[in-house]
Design a protein that fits this description.
Number of domains: 2
CATH class of the largest domain: Alpha Beta
Structural class: alpha/beta
CATH architecture of the largest domain: 3-Layer(aba) Sandwich
CATH superfamily of the largest domain: Zn peptidases
CATH topology of the largest domain: Aminopeptidase
Length: 424
Amino acid sequence: MADRGSEVGARAAAAVDPARIEADLSQLVRFPSITGTEEAIQSEMETLLRELGLRVERIETDPVAFASDPDHPGDEMPRTTLPVVVGRIGRPGGKRILLVGHVDVVPPGDPATWSVDPWGGEVRDGRVLGRGSCDMKGGVAAILGAVRAVIATGSAERFDGELVVVSVPSEEDGGQGMLAAIRAGLTGDMAIITEPSALDIVIAHAGALTFRLTVPGRAAHASVRREGVSALDKLAVLLQALEADETSRNASETDPLMTVLGLPYPTIVGKVEGGDWASTVMDRVVAEGRYGVRLGQTWRDAELDLHRCIADACAADPFLRDHPATVELTGGKFSSARIAADHPLPLGLAVAVEVITGRQPALLGEPYGADMRLLIHEGHTPTVIFGPGDVRAAHAANESVPLDEVVECARVLAAWLVQELLAD
């Protein structure tokens, strides 16, 4: 960062209010904004952005009509609305920077596995606990804190460009909220998504498909089970094929960003249903799972790999050859994405991290899918992930995020925004 930018950026970073960030984050966690029910929290986001003095817009997209978009990223939860909230500050026509966060969360699961109220927003030992605190309401609170600090120092009045805060629904089940925002014109010169990255910078991510595998068998009485063919046994054949496919696809990866992860492209079956009588050979089993999308692949590329794996396994089995299993995509379709390590976005952000925190951030690849790929591929907007919290806490019981990381994230964002948007 240049000397002048460093000085102004340092003032913006110093203006971040930790107490207000804690209050905002606790309040956001108290909204049970499970994917498909984001209306109330998006109304809260409208209020918070207006209080900051931003020009606020709420974009409503019909999710039923939107499903016909050729690049629709899938969905896993029913919904009747798809509300996107946008706040703008600065002057249109120049550089446009997006700060993006999703406000939907996954269900909390069994309450007995939690030691706190999942929707309580409780603060303990410097951490905010609750569903979504890490993924990713901590990042949303950091965005609010950074923008508030930039405005408080007067820096926003001198922006030679526009800052756009984008609050989206439906990230957890595919990203149709982000795609709806993009279709509404919310793209820019650079974007940061404040998903949890422990304040490192994610420049690449894999993707994932959710699939349903329907496996046939032949029913028979248990006393003459050899007269039947167990669909469960045939599922085992296909699981072995998927395991071999997983091994092969991961072993062929050579990019250090992904090989360091050990298993960047996991395949799992997380749900199995079959049988309707204990003493009858199963004639049908349905399994649902997740299939990894390799770096450099679109979800369509990975779909072909998945179909090929199942087709080859069926062709090699005497029963499945004549009674093949079927495979279909059922939910989110996450392509992979990356940005060059020497792009000005990760380079400039890394400098801001080091100046503000004294720590040089790592540039990472991750094994999960994210809205980043939609901004890069559909929005043609260079994008990274940079936010507070450890992704291993996401979706877990007693989910939490360290407050000091949320505050540090806000400080870095404030300094970086000033550096990128302040007029000379």
